[in-house]
Amino acid sequence: MKKIFRSLLATALLATATVATQAQPTAPVAAAFDTTRIVLDPSLINPVSLQSYEAFRAAVKPLVAQMATKKIVALGEGTHGTSEFYTLRFWLTRILMEEHGFKQVALENDYTDSYLLDEALRQPNAAVAPLMKAHLYSIWQNQEMAELLTWLQTHNRTHRKQFHLRGFDAVSAVPDAQQLSALATRYPAAKLTDLTSKLETAAVVQDSVWHNLNKKGYKFNRKRWLSNGLSAYYTVEKLQQALRTAKLPRRQRELAQGFALDAKLNFSVFYEYEVNKKDAPRDSLMAQMTKFLVRGKNDKVILWAHDAHLARKSTDPTDNNGGGAGSYIERMFPGQYFVLGTSTATGTFAATTDRLITYDSPMASYPLEKPLAGSWEASLSAVKVPVFYLQTQQLGVQNLERPLRFVGYRPDSGKDSYSNYQLTEAYDALLFVRQTKAATPLK
């Protein structure tokens, strides 16, 4: 399984001055596994209709009833670019928000940029597509995601009870620094200007490197980059300390705390590398931001991210950090986490050839390779029902360890895209669509 789900910048920390040609390390699936197809008990299969929202809503009532009791519901995607995965998660999100008290949906996207998108969508005459291109990684820049955001925008304009778009990833540092600088300027009595100014300078360096890493032959001063990142981490620590007593209104303090946490998680990659001599597990960082999103007693959140992040077990067999993010979140909130995986066997999906995903990575449609013999996808595709979900805890003796596919933002969907799993190690439930199509690019 390719380590494409670690911190977006972590691999670059190990690079030479020219990073564009560095290959991603791989951890292939163990050669020895039973290739016999698992014949699933028909009683496990819960058919789902994609004909309409109302038909879907009726079919998933038992599944939603389980989700509704949780504080954190994670809706995964087996690829970052499958149309049906976006639509199904939009419908589930709508049900949970309209009927079960969830008010936040958080994407695998930068926390502060997602906040800015949420705020911008509330402005009169705000156009959805340009805002998506400004604030979302390119994996989210599709028509299916636009449907969710348009629904959120319409709801918030016509209802007193407001819903919120959030992010629980940390990549872009400039938005954090700019928002903190704006607060420091607006409230000079808080005495934060020196720290926020220093952070903003470091953030510009950080984001400049990240935005250029995909360019062939791009070179940068690696030693200076590492020093900049570590210095910025310590600056954010001082800023967090200062925020505890800074003279800020309560709402502005809460905003600043979120921006500062996002910045700290962003720069923690450098701290872990320089001080602890290890990678900062991206799944752990996502879990920390999730914890921030549900810090209130009655807060609940719906997470949208790749299956590999939301699963309770890491896709990397050499990972001793305790992830995926689902494992960290479960430990933080015992019994309050529900994760739904989504999977497919054939069709097309959107992906990019860029080494690192950015806001402008070009997405194109690619065919899914035929599932490995003996994989979960091969067994699930043999079920006569084209779209269904199953509860993993009901698998019993059929809960066998077999290859499970995780396709990221890159075009590969072959043998290196699998990790060995029992389904219960990953999900509470799995929603399977036998044949899918690539997400539709924004117009």
Automatic annotation (TrEMBL):
Xref: InterPro entries: Emycin_Estase, Hydrolase/PRTase-associated
UniProt xrefs under SUPFAM superfamilies: EreA/ChaN-like (SSF159501)
Entry keyword Membrane: no
Pfam family, one: Erythro_esteras
Keywords attached to this entry: Signal
Position of the signal peptide: 1-23
PANTHER family: ESTERASE, PUTATIVE (AFU_ORTHOLOGUE AFUA_1G05850)-RELATED
Protein name: Erythromycin esterase family protein
Organismal lineage: Bacteria, Pseudomonadati, Bacteroidota, Cytophagia, Cytophagales
